[in-house]
């Protein structure tokens, strides 16, 4: 079996998977995508004092402002998750969660940590895809009205979402000299590029979902670490952030790459 035959067979498997999961995949994608915000909002409730004291000590902003910060994060994240899952005011929920990401990036000094910054940008990419999906649902309400084609903003949201999502995988590349690491980096880089440019997008995104899921369960198994240890919270944070990026990739699989992609251009050739 040649390389093209293998790719064709893999695409057939991916298409079969999509046909079977078509009704459930978008719901699973949204749940995965908002999981990190839901977990962080709940953590704000259970670690209220610790989070408030950290912000107050780091920024010397006083008790009141530190309390407002924690409250805003709690209400903003849980409220946004409820709106996304209930499919009401999704665009406003996405903008609110974008604001939470920006606020936390500054408050927790993530701006100066390249790895965490790239992961936060990947989260933003997932939200862009969610925003694009909500625009698509809004258009479907007017199914009988003639259309000039796919809306340009939605196309570029999907492009931006894809490009930002792959930043998560840039933090997983090792660049070690041993054969296994080199092979993993080469395969990972190839899949990343395919998703970013929108070529064989669904197959590449689905492969990345499987890869990232395996890495997440193996390396971020927070349930194996005692809850009182700092490593438990660190692994839990990583686990749910990674799960959110998996949700974004599942949206790519469910919705396709959008108009600004090689897959779409191929149809015109």
From TrEMBL:
Its membrane topology is listed as:
Multi-pass membrane protein
Which PROSITE patterns does the UniProt record give? SURF4
Query: Which Pfam families does the record match to this protein?
Result: SURF4
Specify where it is mainly localized.
endoplasmic reticulum
**Could you tell me the keywords of this UniProt record?**
Endoplasmic reticulum, Membrane, Protein transport, Transmembrane, Transmembrane helix, Transport
User: Might you report a single GO cellular component term?
Assistant: endoplasmic reticulum-Golgi intermediate compartment
**Is Transport found in the keyword set?**
yes
Where would you find this protein in the cell?
Endoplasmic reticulum membrane
Q: Can you supply a Gene Ontology BP term from the record?
A: protein transport
Segments passing through the bilayer: 63-85, 92-111, 179-199, 206-227, 239-260
UniProt family annotation = Belongs to the SURF4 family.
**The protein's name:** Surfeit locus protein 4
Origin organism of this chain?
Answer: Triplophysa tibetana
Q: What is the lineage of its organism?
A: Eukaryota, Metazoa, Chordata, Craniata, Vertebrata
